Each structure stands twice: as structure tokens, then as C-alpha cells.
Structure to design on (91 residues):
């Protein structure tokens, strides 16, 4: 817990990168501060982000029971159909 402006907050670090080099120490460095680094070059990166955020927020991981990439993609596509993007995007 960290105090920011007199209010206690749970703070975690997550970094999403395009790729992690073979000799990179970034994953170990993130773990040293109880953080997480996820590479988008990993086909399952979305599931890893979901798992990390769910554990930090202590909520159900909606992708946990979807071990196949096609199941993850289908779940996200179906869920996005229920989102009114115009509410969030003002062009």
C-alpha cells in the first residue's frame, strides 16, 4: 500500500512490450519489484495480462477457463459486440 495525497492505494507495475530479447533482464527486474512484463510477441499475452490484473484486483479471470487461443479470440470478439464504443470514442 502506498500513500498518495493522503489516500492509501494498492499499486502494481505492469509493462507491456512488443518483444523481450533473449538476454534481457527486464522480466527479472520486474519480478524484483513484484511487477510483471508481458510481450505482445507471445500469442497468449492477452491471457497473461488478464491473469495478472485479475490476481491484483482479486476478481475472477474471465480467460482462465479458455486454454486455446481460438477460445480467447472468440470470447473477446463476442464481448466486444456488447460494447458501445461510441460512448468512449468522441471523433
Amino acid at each position: 500500500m502506498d500513500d498518495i495525497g493522503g489516500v492509501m492505494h494498492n499499486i502494481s507495475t505492469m509493462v507491456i512490450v512488443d518483444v523481450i530479447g533473449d538476454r534481457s533482464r527486464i522480466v527479472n527486474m520486474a519480478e524484483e519489484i513484484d511487477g510483471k512484463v508481458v510481450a505482445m510477441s507471445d500469442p497468449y499475452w492477452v491471457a497473461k495480462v488478464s491473469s495478472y490484473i485479475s490476481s491484483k484486483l482479486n476478481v475472477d479471470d474471465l480467460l482462465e477457463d479458455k486454454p486455446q487461443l481460438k477460445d480467447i479470440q472468440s470470447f473477446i470478439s463476442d464481448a466486444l459486440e456488447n460494447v458501445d464504443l461510441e460512448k468512449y470514442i468522441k471523433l
Observations:
- The two ends are 38 Å apart (CA to CA).
- The longest strand covers residues 14-17.
